[in-house]
Design brief:
The chain has 359 residues and is an alpha/beta fold. It has 2 domains: 283 residues, TIM Barrel (Alpha-Beta Barrel); 59 residues, no CATH class. Helices cover 48% and strands 15% of the residues. β3, α3 and β4 form a beta-alpha-beta unit.
Length: 359
């Protein structure tokens, strides 16, 4: 492939890397910067280390970009979201802040909260954040779903008391047709949040882009969406460890195939038996934790979502997929999830992949 001319970053995933303290995440971010990566994205999950706290610690200590991939609105009050993003922009000292936003896992989030009107909630939060960060005095009454869900005073207004110091770019992390179109209408960009490999292989990715771009054109014929892809990798010198590491994330991600109406032909392209996905969905419906559900995940299911294995196994595949991403218009790649040992994975990606992507 020709050199990738966009930004290259990493995604840290708190529920997969639960053995890392906040301080360790900061150390790993510094290693990433030294290795040539340009941004650290962090996911959002109940029960694990706070997304905003970890990103703030990184931004305060390491001269590297940061972003949420993605923030789940049900876990955060809208006022706190704006205040936190604006404060994070000060810590970023002029470096762009990425604000990825989506409803959250359809298997995990409902175990903690009632997912009230997710599409409307995400839309309204994106617009509220955009207007508030721009310095506008924003009437809460313009956002009826936020008012209802978070008990905001519809007669009141919000105006940020200080000016953000870095640009905040708002990305949609949704995958469904209505979510994609909505993201194109009201957000700045699109995140393929961990679904790039299965959607590409199933043949859905081009259509997903077209939905988001149609939404963007409906509000502005000249609007161009930013595009970031989370390219899932799990790399280790220990192949068994590399295969084991992704199982928890695959467990709660793969059931969305049913929500998206995957056909038998698409399941066949991905090499996964549909019944195994239905078994996972049932396990979560009965209250299984990620750890409990992960035992149902097969190697075929892992490889439908990840490039996984030893450095030799993954390097050529990662470079090939990065080339496909560039062809499809992505301007940023975040190597996501990484593997059982983040330090090892960062160094191996820097040694075997970055030089080839940078030409």
């Amino acid at each position: 492939m020709t050199a990738f001319d966009g930004r290259l970053g990493l995604q840290f995933v708190t529920h997969l890397a639960n053995n890392y303290t906040v301080k360790r995440f900061v150390e790993l971010a510094e290693l990433a910067r030294e290795c040539g990566f340009q941004r650290i994205w962090l996911n959002d999950n109940a029960r694990y280390r706070s997304q905003v706290v970890v990103l703030s610690a990184i931004a305060a200590s390491v001269p590297i970009g940061v972003g949420t991939a993605v923030l789940v609105p049900y876990f955060h009050h809208p006022i706190e979201v704006v205040d936190s993003l604006a404060a994070l922009s000060e810590l970023s000292e002029g470096r762009e802040v990425g604000f990825g936003l989506a409803r959250g896992s359809i298997t995990q989030t409902p175990q903690h909260v009632i997912m009230h009107r997710p599409l409307a909630l995400v839309r309204e939060l994106a617009v509220f954040v955009s207007r508030a960060l721009a310095g506008e005095s924003v009437p809460y009454g313009d956002f009826p779903v936020l008012c209802e869900h978070y008990h905001l005073n519809a007669a009141g207004r919000f105006k940020l008391a200080f000016t953000p110091k870095s640009r905040v770019v708002i990305y949609s992390g949704g995958n469904g047709p209505r979510s994609l179109r909505m993201g194109g209408e009201v957000m700045d960009g699109l995140i393929s949040s961990g679904t790039f490999i299965p959607m590409l292989r199933a043949g859905r990715l081009k259509g997903m882009h077209e939905m988001a771009e149609a939404g963007a054109r409906s509000v502005d014929p000249h609007k161009t969406l930013r595009k970031m892809v989370e390219l899932n990798v799990s790399v280790s010198r220990d192949r068994d460890a590399a295969m084991e590491f992704p199982r928890r994330q695959v467990a709660h991600s793969i059931p969305q195939w049913e929500s998206l109406g995957f056909t038998p032909e698409e399941y066949a392209r991905l090499g996964v038996e549909r019944q195994r996905v239905l078994d996972l969905k049932d396990a979560f419906a009965q209250g299984a934790t990620i750890e409990e559900a992960a035992v149902l995940v097969t190697e075929e299911m892992v490889l439908s979502y990840y490039v996984a294995g030893t450095p030799t196994e993954v390097a050529d595949q990662v470079v090939e997929l990065a080339g496909r991403a560039q062809e499809m218009g992505y301007d940023e790649i975040a190597f996501a999830k990484l593997g059982p040992d983040y330090e090892e994975a960062i160094e191996m990606l820097a040694e075997s992949v970055l030089p080839r992507l940078k030409g």
